[in-house]
Every structure is written in C-alpha cells, then in structure tokens.
Amino acid sequence: MSAVETLVTGIFSSVIIALLIAMFVSQRRQLDQMRNEMAEFKAEMRAEIAELRAEFKAECTELRRAVMAVEKDTAMLIGRLLPEDEVLSRITNRPEPVS
Q1: Under a CB-based contact definition with an 8 Å cutoff, are residues 75 and 88 in contact?
Q2: Predicted pLDDT of residue 34
C-alpha cells in the first residue's frame, strides 16, 4: 500500500468515526429530550390527578353534608309523626316496645 492509499484510508476511517460519533450524540440528545418531555408529562398528570382528587374529596364532603341534613330532617319529621319510643326503636333497629 502506498502512502497516499494509507492517507486516504486513514481520512476515510476518521470521517466514518466522526459520523458515527455525531449520530450517537444526536441520538443521545433526542433521548434526553424525550426523557425531559416524559418528566414534564408525568408532572402534569400528577398535578391533574391531585386536582381531581381534591375536587372529588370536596364533592364527597358536600354530599356527606347533604346526607346528614336529609337524615336530620327525616329524623325531625319522624319525631313529629311517631311516638318517641317508636322513633328510637326504628333508629336503633330494635323491636318496637310491647304495650
């Protein structure tokens, strides 16, 4: 092999190695970018889930208050319509007192 052929082969090999390194760096940047995007997406989803949980909890609390109000109103209505012993037996699921 002549010196020119060796030089051309060396240059050609260096160019191929440089291209491979450039491709690797490019792929690495894309991977890093995808990881960052995934991390942002996860953070957004966690925030959205937390917001939905808070809304759900607030709605549950509101429903509990509404149920308690209905129970209270029902108890007052039953108290007006039925004798006290019968109301107590219905509330506690005890048998009605025998008269």
Answers
A1: no
A2: 97
